[in-house]
Specification:
32% strand, globular, signal
Length: 118
């Protein structure tokens, strides 16, 4: 295996490995999601929150718990708590797809944005 391919494989492995003593994922509670949604201000161009299927899962990034959400306007509206592998992976769609990362320790959205358009 070439050096660049080995480095890419190591980076992929490192990014998928949990930090020592912490799980790589966790399950968010409906109460946490309701608290976050109560304070969300959606980006310009987005529809009302209740028009989106909102897919949430918990992750650990840089040793910190984050709530990750992908809101999809064309799916079933409402909250869906899913495993990371079950979350939609949509790379375009403008504001019909909104991405959220919420730092649970800071109690802060970091970031909330609409997808680009293909």
């Amino acid at each position: 295996m070439s050096k660049p391919k080995r480095m890419a494989a190591l980076l992929l492995l490192a990014s998928s490995t949990a930090t020592a003593g912490q799980a790589a994922t966790w399950t968010p509670t409906p109460a946490l999601i309701a608290e976050v949604e109560a304070h969300l201000v959606l980006p310009d161009g987005a529809g009302p929150l209740d028009q989106y299927g909102r897919y949430y899962y918990g992750d650990v990034k840089h040793g910190r718990r984050v709530l990750v959400g992908e809101f999809v306007q064309v799916s079933d509206p409402g909250v869906h708590i899913v495993a990371p592998t079950q979350a939609p992976r949509i790379l375009d769609g403008g504001c019909s797809v909104i991405n959220l990362v919420y730092d649970t320790a800071e109690k802060k959205v970091t970031p909330l944005f609409c997808n680009g358009s293909a």
